[in-house]
Amino acid sequence: MSDTTKKCVVLRMDFEDIIGQTHIKSHLKTTIEHGRIAHAQLFSGSSGSGLLPLAIAYAKGLLCSQYEKGTASYIRCANNVNKFSHPDLHFVYPVTTNASVKSNAVSSSFSEEWRQFLTDQPYGSLFDWFKVLGIENKQGNISVKEAEEISKKLSLKSYEGGYKIMIIWMAEKMNNECANKILKLVEEPPKNTVLLLLTEQEEQLISTIRSRCQLLHIPLLSERDIANTLITRMSVSENEAHNASRRAHGDYNKAIHIISQDNEDRVFEEWFVLWVRTAFKAKGNKKAIQELLNWSDMMAGKGRETQKNFFRYCMELFRQALLKNYNTDDLVYFETNDPKFSIDKFAPFVHQNNIYDIMAALEDASYHIERNGNAKIIFTDLSIQLTRLIHKKE
Fold this sequence. Notes:
Blueprint: H1 3-6, H2 22-34, E1 40-44, H3 51-64, H4 72-82, E2 89-92, H5 111-120, H6 126-133, H7 144-155, E3 164-169, H8 176-181, H9 183-187, E4 193-199, H10 207-210, E5 214-217, H11 223-234, H12 238-248, H13 252-260, H14 265-281, H15 286-300, H16 304-325, H17 343-346, H18 355-370, H19 375-389
Parallel strand pairs: 1-4, 1-5, 2-3, 3-4
Helix pairs in contact: 2-3, 3-4, 11-12, 12-13, 14-15, 14-19, 15-19, 16-18, 18-19
């Protein structure tokens, strides 16, 4: 871990400590003050925008609302939430077996790792969580066994006599059996029970759950909010903070990775440069075609989360090339690590006549990877398409 990462201030889960989102925080505080609490709520947005911190701050407000602020009971309640150990606050998140848990993995199997993750990376991504578990080459989910655990926990009486709260992070990772099993809880939760479903892809949740939840969209963070937070909490220079916030596209977690230089962009760039160079040469070149097949084999061996992250990286780099091609330099931030690769030289090959098809091909490939398609076939097909599209005339 870099020195910059070590400087990062651990966030308390208070509304005042959450980055930006002034309107959302005001709305949530108002619902607590007026007692207008929907029993099933769906928070939709990017994890890097503050999904988890907002949900936990909201849970703290609800759980501690029965006590007067400043009293010993209130302080004890708030401290328990801050430590993620409040008896009436429960979490569910995607998991799978790993070196420690060989079978029947459920969220409670990894509660210690989860508390550490929340402490270190409250704005962290699903891939960051999988790295904590050592399962970045697998796909975690929320299984039907988890649904049984949810029902069991919520059937118990509230320990402190107030609300019981269940936060389901990355709710779109519930498989159909799990989603259908908790549907009754969503429709008719026990008294004083609040279900908070957090999702980055609400369209992947079954419609019967979506339609029964009160929906709250969490917008991306502003560049200014991200930059100010980097300056005050990570002690980075103003110039570095503004550069990182610009590249982060409203995602604080991405900004931290950029500042800490522990993200995957360097290796993604290597894969991307090799891919586009080989695809460009492959037209009518048997040797280059074989190299493209070898590249597809190499990519097929990566974990699915890594593959999906790579697709996102490619889409952003193609967008950057398009912006460069059409002289919108003020929106171009890409800085190459490979001295032999220049976005200025690459940009003319990305234009209005091929960008839509390139993006569609990448989105389709990501869709099929998400659904456990054959990675070798997906990457081979994508590479053949790129060979044709990269030669398309403007």
